[in-house]
Every structure is written in C-alpha cells, then in structure tokens.
Specification:
two-stranded parallel ribbon; five-stranded parallel beta sheet; about 10% strand; single chain; about 290 residues
Length: about 290
C-alpha cells in the first residue's frame, strides 16, 4: 500500500527501507533480524504494487561475497531497479543508531565486485553504502567511498554523516553518482535536513526519505486508536466526518474494487456477474 501511495502522490521512485520492513513486518528494531527471503518477498510485493522503479535496501547482503551474489539474483528476480549493500558486519543495525561496526574495506570491495558479476541485467543499479562515519570518522568514510567507486559500484551512499559540511566534503572527494539519506528519526537530529535544491548542488543525485511516510502513518494510526479506546463509536463518527472529500473516504473504491468489477465484466460470464450483483446489499463497486 505504501508503494502505491508513493506513486499516487506523484513521486518518481519508491524506496524500500530495511528499517521500515523490520519495524512494520516484525514490530521490532532494525538490528539485522530479517532474512534474505523476507526482504526479497517484500521487494516483490512493492514491485507488483507500483509502476515506479523500486530501489531496495539489501542490508549487508546477508553474508559474504558469495551470499551477496544470491541476494542480487533474488532482488533482480523480484523486479528491483536498484539495491544498496552496506559495509556493516552481520548482524547490522539501522545506520543512524550508534554501535555500528564495519567489515574491512577490501572485503566490501569484493562484495561489490560479486554483486556486479551476479546481476543478469546491467541496468540493475548497484549502490555501495558505507557506514564508516559512525565508528571511524569522516576520513575513513571518504576513503571507503573512493575504494567502492573504484570497485565499480554504480552509486556511492555515505550513510549518517553529521553535517552539511561533511556531505559536501564527501561529495568533493568521492567520484560518481551519490546517494543522500534524508533519514535520522530520533528526537535529537543525527543527520541534517537539507533542501533538495541544496542537496543537488552538493553533488547528490538520489535522495532517500526512509521511514518518513511510515512514521507519519503510524502517528495517525496510534492517535486514532487512542481516541477509539477513549470514546468509541462517537470518535470514529467524528473521524469519518473529517474524511469527507478525501481520497480515502470511500475506502473500497480507494483500494480498487471497481477495477476488480471491471475485470469481472471482461472475463466472467455476463449472466453470472449480473446474478451476483442483482439485488445484492452492500457497497456497489463504482458508487461514489
């Protein structure tokens, strides 16, 4: 549903956040609890839900360079347009949280080469992410970015830098297209929030907003559930009044029942479809 909303809102691509999958699928923190199978399944669901390109978090590749090859094969088979691999040790954790550890740079370079060799479609974008800023500082993150670019990564992704100045320094020092993660969702800001025009001027061509829509949705859902517990039906009736004229007011139409009705008319025997809906109670597909 989230992927379809991204398209409905007019954005140009969908990003599948690993943190978001862990938070919503498991209801747990992003500390490497998800498997390749679960993540590839989610890629497939998102790809099927939208016509937009899907860029997906592939964590640390779920093992060494050999494991990375299968990760790339599975993500490509699921329909991903691009994926990013990070240089954290296994189990990894959300990039904006302290306590990260990274593998040696040459090990990550091997993972990148393996990913490039494993892809069947050369248009599958392989993004190399470094999490070295947290444990080892900006200079090491820059050094790794340069190594990963030399290894052939299509894009370089420095995660969780701490200031505009750090992002600018990284962009100047590391060649090729680069990714900017507009994340960090603690009360105390861990990464800067920068206008998109300025991000582009710094030298980044892809901007991610991981968890942003998820957090907005969870806030609304939690507030609604608290109101429902406290006031019951009266609260929901007030909520329904607030939805008048909104796209989600007619939920059945919003979630595609008219499309299903059109498919029935196209492919099922006309007499059986007519019999199904004649004198049938409930929402009639296509009604306002």
């Amino acid at each position: 549903m989230g992927a379809s909303l991204v398209e409905r809102a007019g954005h140009e691509c969908v990003y599948m956040t690993g943190s978001g999958v862990a938070n919503k699928l498991l209801g747990k923190a992003d500390v490497g609890l998800l498997s390749l199978t679960e993540m590839a399944m989610m890629v497939r669901f998102l790809v099927q839900a939208t016509r937009l390109p899907v860029i997906a978090d592939a964590d640390s590749g779920y093992g060494n360079a050999v494991n990375v090859m299968r990760t790339v094969e599975e993500y490509e088979a699921a329909g991903a347009t691009g994926l990013h691999l990070e240089d954290q040790v296994v189990p990894k954790r959300c990039g904006s949280i302290a306590g990260k550890e990274v593998v040696p740079a040459d090990e990550m370079a091997g993972k990148i080469r393996a990913a490039l060799d494993a892809r069947g479609d050369e248009n599958l974008v392989i993004i190399a992410r470094t999490d070295a800023r947290g444990p080892h500082g900006l200079d090491e993150a820059i050094r790794r970015g340069q190594i990963y670019a030399a290894a052939g990564a299509d894009m370089i992704f420095p995660d969780a830098l701490l200031s505009v100045e750090e992002y600018a320094a990284f962009a100047r020092a590391v060649p090729g297209p680069k990714v900017f993660n507009m994340g960090g969702y603690a009360r105390k800001r861990t990464t800067p929030k920068i206008p998109l025009s300025e991000v582009e001027e710094l030298g980044y061509c892809l901007v991610l907003f991981p968890l942003a829509s998820i957090r907005a949705g969870i806030r609304s859902e939690l507030d609604f559930l608290v109101g429902l517990r406290e006031r019951g039906t009266e609260f929901e009736v007030e909520h329904l009044r607030e939805l008048e004229g909104h796209a989600v007011e007619n939920w059945y139409e919003f979630t595609g029942i008219s499309h299903i009705r059109a498919l029935e008319d196209r492919y099922l025997p006309a007499a059986s479809v007519a019999a199904r809906y004649t004198n049938s109670a409930g929402h009639m597909p296509g009604e306002d």
